[in-house]
């Protein structure tokens, strides 16, 4: 949605209404839009009701509405924010066209859309569903590529309760900000920079792919795991790596997120017990993000921790976690980001 040059929008109007552009209109049901629509009456300088949700537009009205939208005089109420956000979340690329949404509102849309997409993928981890995940994540990276600072609002969208999908989204959005916080705008000029960003963030969203093969009764158990149950949990990294191969996903950044996010600098991690110098930078980032986001959510066996406390716990465990990455995380949290 962008302001039309054809009208002079009164001050304050945009605080109460979203202006609709043709792309947004086309995403609505043609005869039954999902929310009420308002028309700006230029002669009196006020907003008037044009369509009430639940009614049906006639063919003539749909044609007139398209003309009015092109003229820049059609709006929807910000009171319908929840409905609008949910609608846009089903066609995520619309956030790149809607210039009147705030960064906070766009962050809401990304969280809703990506959580729904990850739920579908973990339920059915096949190539067709992965392609839809990839499509949505690439909209996300395109959005932040235009302005790295946009990642701030996204990083604040943290699910409070742990599920596979919630954890994937928490890690993807937190990891996106942590990754970009270490980059300057000149990063865009580096060879393969955009591909590196795309694949790293996809890897963070999919890092726990193998957990979809662990029975929920084990994942959600609130008592100490039995040896064979722990073996199944520890097997999720290699299971995820093998699933990537079956999905024909062979990008190293994604493979490292999946296979290395439980490796630790002192060699105490799994599955390969890699140590300092053997774990990739991507794997180290994934390890910090995975552990931090896990501690930040309520799990069946542990309460959620406060942000600074969770990051401080990782800093105190410097033998296992990369101090440089954790300090960067702490710095962002301390700055209120």
TrEMBL record:
Keyword Cytoplasm: no
GO molecular function: hydrolase activity
Coiled coil (UniProt feature): none
Alphabetized CDD domains for the sequence: HDc
Record-linked SUPFAM superfamilies: HD-domain/PDEase-like (SSF109604)
Entry keyword set: Hydrolase
InterPro entries membership: HD/PDEase_dom, HD_GYP_dom
Protein name, entry field: Metal dependent phosphohydrolase
Protein source organism: Solidesulfovibrio fructosivorans JJ]
Lineage, top ranks: Bacteria, Pseudomonadati, Thermodesulfobacteriota, Desulfovibrionia, Desulfovibrionales
């Amino acid at each position: 949605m962008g302001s039309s040059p054809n009208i002079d929008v009164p001050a304050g109007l945009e605080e109460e209404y979203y202006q609709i552009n043709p792309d947004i209109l086309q995403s609505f049901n043609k005869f039954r839009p999902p929310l009420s629509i308002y028309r700006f009456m230029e002669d009196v300088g006020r907003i008037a009701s044009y369509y009430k949700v639940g009614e049906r537009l006639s063919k003539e009205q749909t044609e007139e509405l398209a003309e009015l939208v092109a003229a820049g005089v059609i709006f929807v109420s910000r009171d319908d924010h929840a409905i609008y956000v949910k609608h846009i979340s089903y066609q995520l690329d619309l956030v790149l066209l809607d210039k009147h949404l705030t960064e906070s509102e766009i962050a809401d849309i990304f969280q809703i859309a990506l959580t729904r997409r990850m739920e579908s993928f973990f339920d059915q981890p096949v190539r067709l569903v992965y392609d839809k995940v990839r499509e949505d994540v690439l909209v996300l990276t395109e959005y932040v590529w235009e302005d790295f600072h946009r990642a701030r609002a996204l990083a604040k969208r943290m699910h409070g309760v742990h599920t596979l999908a919630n954890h994937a989204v928490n890690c993807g959005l937190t990891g996106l900000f942590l990754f970009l916080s270490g980059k300057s705008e000149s990063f865009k000029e580096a060879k393969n920079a955009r591909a590196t960003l795309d694949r790293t963030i996809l890897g963070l969203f999919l890092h726990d792919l193998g957990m979809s093969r662990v029975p929920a009764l084990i994942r959600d158990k609130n008592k100490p795991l039995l040896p064979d149950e722990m073996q199944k949990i520890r097997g999720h990294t290699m299971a995820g790596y093998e699933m990537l191969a079956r999905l024909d996903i062979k990008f190293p950044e994604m493979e490292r997120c999946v296979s290395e996010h439980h490796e630790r600098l002192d060699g105490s991690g799994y599955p390969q017990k890699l140590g300092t110098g053997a774990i990739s930078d991507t794997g180290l980032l994934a390890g910090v993000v995975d552990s931090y986001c896990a501690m930040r959510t309520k799990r069946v066996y542990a309460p959620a921790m406060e942000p600074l406390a969770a990051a401080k716990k990782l800093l105190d465990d410097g033998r296992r976690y990369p101090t440089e990455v954790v300090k960067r995380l702490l710095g962002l949290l301390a700055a209120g980001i």
